[in-house]
């Protein structure tokens, strides 16, 4: 405010202020002047009066100066603030009781009262202009409970903290805007927040988004048509302001706004989205409270913008509300509850009914259908069919002055508007939008009268769909109707449809999911007939062919990698109820990933899986309860019978003879459902090879063993029974399984207390001539030297075992000596031995997929995990962490001289030292030695060992991988190695070195690679790299 401006002060108020200043003695007056120079006492927003003007002023001149720089309200605030700072308590009490003090009850600001009245009238007008369809039942009135709900949002929480930013999020039509409007209305009526907020502002994002450039002050002035808002008061007390920002999803926030510098100027002209950005970020009004409403798909954007927001989920009608609505609508309680039971079974529809307008649409549709057809069957209805009948029943009696030839074109135009709006998240349409699509006024008037469209109260000439699901349905209907033009003009409609389906089925967005559900539901034959007969639409005859083409094209699209929503795809197919079409569209499907956590998921999985004739890989996470036993058929047990039959349909997929891999990880199957599953898996037609089950949490030992024993009867190729705490009885069953079939070739018993007795039982089957086991993992099994004797004897007789993993068992030198009795025999077939101690080797487990191995965690309830630990190339013989010394290396070196089958040997995390390396290198120099991989990670090696290794690297024709990680070789040792590595006779391709040592030779390595060398240096082994799979 310029100092040349004189602010008018009421005479009575001026006299009173002057009397307070006159009461000050000279020292107090000087202190008062000094305080006027303090920004803290001026609230940071008021201008400072130059000291030259203040210095010689008496009380009269001082008051005149105050009038030049401050408004009347500000003078009172500054005076009170300074008196409080000067501890003039009695004067402060007088000011607060003074009639002219602007915040006293006696002189309550009339302007604020007028603002409350204006806002009350505005909200009530918006409320009155909101069209409610005939027969709609409004359940909630202004009640004490509602007041409590609103208070809980804007008053301190249990921790005593006051939330300053509250976000009401939820799907369309559940009451977010209604709740925000009521908060403002109850404030305007004086019921709520009287002591908390002086002003409450309602900002409609839909209304302001059409504004070009304006100021924040200009936005606030919209609700002061006859005067200016009290900006001084608003700026000086931001903590007493509440901004209700409705419909954030309507705003388009450019991504580059995050880098914008703060803006605090209320009068700076800016694009409206920038003003809202600065308001949300608390730049413009730092202490104000924000109440924001948004649809849930914009929640992420808000989290990025807001400081410490509190998100409140608005869920709409509760189950009790829905029940009350149905009972009041149908009048007959028994009839209403019967209908509601059916709606509950249709989980999608029941969820939609959380929106009051959907409740009305469902009830009105069902009531008309039942009146029209006494034989109307609820059980045959889908969500899509209800929406079709809703629209057709409304238009059956509607009088629309359109010619018969115009109807198809008008429906395509309307549906095109809806579809384009969905692409661009536009839910409000101006006159120009409708005119551009050539929608006739008579159709628009009819849609408004039928409550399919409604006028937008704060946007002249704009319309929106009464509920967003109406727009979603009509948007889906656009792709089912005839015509080739897309909703956006280009590309063509069928191409646009393919993009929609592919994107929607790789996205969990609620509205896209709804749209695809409706689209597939419209393929139901009788619905196409209903649309053509009642709405006079023309459904495309090529739509099923185009969908089958799209399904074929999915073959080139990595649906697993791109997180294809199989379950939603199956829900869409279930919505069609056309089994022939479902069988055709699922015929190319080779793999599927389904989480069956509820009745709907079980229902759609059972409907679709039985038609997946070529499915080869299936992941099922089944947590829905399935009844334990067959029940006597009654009305009460109908649902249980349905679940049992649905589970049987799911299990029947294995009888097609194509499923090779099954993953039941995180499933919770009871004994009854397991028996049903195993019955199908034992079928001669079942060709299952790999079974995985990683269960979260812990289960009883008895239950684990029961599942394992059930699994052993399946005679699979591969078993992994990690962390199952198996008993001797299970080991006997396992031994029997290995000898009763030549099918099992891979077995992992890691992390079980197998001990020496368990190995003895196991080795009795390894010596059996019918045993075909090729790969055996016994890591962390509490084995000692006696186990090596049993294994050695078995290796002498067994002609199939090529891979043995014994890492992290206390075998000691004695155990290795016993093993080497077999290893030193030329006819011993073992190729890969792992006695590593873990080191950097992770215990990753994965299911083979077309892309390789996907990692999955090993949990304590692991059972029947098959085909995961053994890549198709080779594992190593692992003796890591087995308490070995140089003495063991001497025994192993002797074995290597005689056994030319050994390819991989890992001795990591053992006390090998330089002497052990010396023994091994002597064997590696033998031209007949076939070892190609040697693991010496964390083996306490020193630079001296590099001399032995260097002699081998320059001459060995087989060694291509050498791991020396976590050894202190020092630069001198690496220098010795590098001399050998640079020789043309060196065949090494991969070398593990500590990073600081790698940095020393990095430049020379690059030169070698430029000259054609294949050598790579690794500072960490990446076990997701296919080229590193040999290592673990």
UniProtKB/TrEMBL annotation:
One of its GO terms (cellular component) is cytoplasm. It holds the Pfam family NACHT. The keyword Magnesium does not apply. InterPro entries: DAPIN, DEATH-like_dom_sf, Leu-rich_rpt, LRR_dom_sf, NACHT_NTPase, NLRP_HD2, NLRP_innate_immun_reg, NOD1/2_WH. GO terms for biological process: regulation of inflammatory response. Residues 164-363 form the NACHT domain. One of its GO terms (molecular function) is ATP binding. Transmembrane segments: none annotated. It comes from the Eukaryota. Keywords: ATP-binding, Leucine-rich repeat, Nucleotide-binding, Repeat. The keyword ATP-binding applies. Residues 9-101 form the Pyrin domain. Belongs to the NLRP family. This is NLR family pyrin domain containing 13.
